[in-house]
Amino acid sequence: MAIADLAAYAHLSGEDIEALGQELDEVRRDIEGSLGERDAAYIRNTIRFQRALEVAARALVACSRSRTGWIAGTAALAAAKSVENMEIGHNVCHGQWDWMNDPEIHSTTWEWDMVAVSAQWRYSHNYRHHVMTNIVGVDDDLGFGIMRVSRDEPWQPVHLMQPLRNVLLAVIFEWGIALHGVHSERDRVLPDTVRLAEVRATLVRKIARQVVKDYVIFPAMSLTRWRRALLANVVANLARNLWAYVVIFCGHFPDGAEKFAPNVIEQETKGEWYLRQILGAANFNAGRLLAFASGNLCYQIEHHLFPDLPSNRYAEIAVRVRAICDKYDLPYTTGPFVRQYFLTLRTIHKLALPDWLLTATSDDAPETASEKKFAGGSRSGSGLRAALRRNARRRRQAA
To answer: Disordered: where is this region (predicted)?
Structure first.
């Protein structure tokens, strides 16, 4: 089952958790105190690069007479859309650049290049997900409302369709995010029917603008080659959707990204909140290019600890966070990109099946663990990482 007692699961005392929180607060203060022109130049240059890449891509699609030129232009357009969504839109809407006081690069004014409404997404994501991370029944991002990723959710026959639902979500990911956002907004404004109508109308207007822009205006600008431009937009949006889906899922559903019972947030301290973010997220290994292409969400642990700190600082933050995890004997969940996605797919396909077909217990499964997984083992004088290793050795010896 999901973790109901953070301290017991992490093998840390209340004093340890408080000290952990203080060290992470110090990391935040250091980064905030060093923000300056270098960081502002980074986001402005990123926006310039993205816009130039998009213009060049559309020109290549429209003007090239060869199939190779169309493929290159479409690939460049997909890359431009991915950068706009991941490194710019996602991070700007998190408030990572609000400290600049630039009205054009601000969480309250940025509207990203997809059908989801930024304002609706900020509530569903910045609050419902980032504050209530991986809390069963509270965090809407836990399975996105259509998939079972924890045994805490009772199995139903409809879950047999989960592998197909997963493929469908990947293909239409921007539409899933849009509906996800309006669903959360609906919960927030009910029973105010007037505001609910406004929420729906806002989404409809955004969808209309996006569809007209991508599938009418830009193809029309290509005149007689409008079919090439239309197909390029369809393929680029599909590629962007697939890439965003893979990155997001790799950060939330591999083994080691734990789930939590609702009671963990009762009187939750800042240190406990930090601990929950470390235990609930997963990174994947990436060089500078892959990190940039993923919106620096290869550092999902750091992003969950400090969602409003600039993404270009996550690499240096990661060095300190990993050292803190070592100090407190906490796992720092990361691995190769392909492996993390494979583990995610394994969980999605495995939990499509009823529990009686699964082997591991609900307290000691790779995709969902609890403090009870250490029953019968000595935990004194060590932290979670050491306990997990002992537990794994005990399972191997019993096999």
So the answer is: 364-399
Nearest CA-CA partner of 112 in 195, 177, 45? 177
Establish if 392 belongs to a structural domain. no
Instruction: State the residue range of the domain holding 228.
Output: 6-328
Q: Is residue 372 in a domain? A: no
Q: What is the tens place of the pLDDT at every residue in 309-343? A: 999 999 999 999 999 999 999 999 999 999 999 99
Is 248 contained in some domain? yes
**Model confidence over 259-303: pLDDT tens digits?**
999 999 888 999 999 999 999 999 999 999 999 999 999 999 999
Counted domains in the chain: 1
pTM listed for this prediction: 0.93
Does the residue 349 lie in any domain? no
